[in-house]
Amino acid sequence: MMIGTIRINLIVALLAGIFTFALSIGNNLFLSSCIKAGYSFLILFVVTFGFRWVLGLLIGPVSSLEDSLLENSSSGVGQNLDLSTPDEDEETRQLLKSNHTNQTKDAQSNDMQFSPLNPPKLVTKNNLDPEQLAGALRRMSED
Predict the structure, then answer these.
(1) In this structure, are residues 1 and 49 in contact, taking their beta carbons and an 8 Å threshold?
(2) Is the overall model pTM greater than 0.70, yes or no?
(3) Residue whose C-alpha is closest to residue 28's, from 36, 40, 38
(4) 56-111: per-residue pLDDT in tens?
(5) Number of neighbours of residue 10 by Cβ within 10 angstroms
(6) What is the rounded radius of gyration, in angstroms, for the C-alpha atoms of the chain?
(7) Could you give the angle at the alpha carbon of 84 between the alpha carbons of 81 and 89, nearest 5°?
(8) What number of other Cβ atoms are within 10 A of residue 11's Cβ?
(9) 47: pLDDT confidence band, cut at 50, 70 and 90?
(10) I need a labelling partner for 34 at 20 to 30 A (CA). Which of 8, 82, 128, 135 fits?
(11) DSSP letter string over the chain?
């Protein structure tokens, strides 16, 4: 079992042939470059068959496992997603209205209880003894 079609082989081989020709034309004669590009085309055409066959072997068991899982889950549970919004019934509307009125009452009661913070004010000492300040500075510089 192989993956893909022969077009994949042709595209890969053609790209390799053109790449080989472009790289060898600067150092070789035209005929020599064409021969090297032809060899490159043939080699990669055959190698791509092998690569496709190996991928087919690796992916084959995975796809057969997926097929068996799909056959076993023929009930369709979990296969469909319903994105429609259900219609609002009268109970839902009443519930939303009651929640809205409760929130506005709570907000009004919270506004009544609010009082701003009164942080303590910072106090500075304006009349400090210069000798005490110099002593503190000396002790700090010794550490």
Answers:
(1) no
(2) no
(3) 36
(4) 888 876 666 566 666 665 566 667 777 777 676 777 778 778 776 766 665 556 55
(5) 13
(6) 42
(7) 135
(8) 12
(9) very high
(10) 8
(11) ---S-HHHHHHHHHHHHHHHHHHHTTTS-HHHHHHHHHHHHHHHHHHHHHHHHHHHHHHHHHHHHHHHHHHHTTT-TTS----PPPPP-HHHHHHHHHHHHHHHHHHHHHHHH-----PPPP-------HHHHHHHHHHHHH-
For the chain, the distance separating the N- and C-terminal CA atoms, rounded to the nearest angstrom, is 83
Give mean pLDDT, residues 108-133: 74
Q: Cα(100)–Cα(132) distance, rounded to whole angstroms?
A: 65
> Which CA distances in Å does 38 have to 14, 31, 41, 48, 59?
9, 11, 5, 15, 31
**The two structure tokens encoding residue 129:** 């003894």
Token digits of residue 18: 């053109």
On the 0-12 / 13-18 / 19+ scale of CB atoms within 10 A, 44 is buried
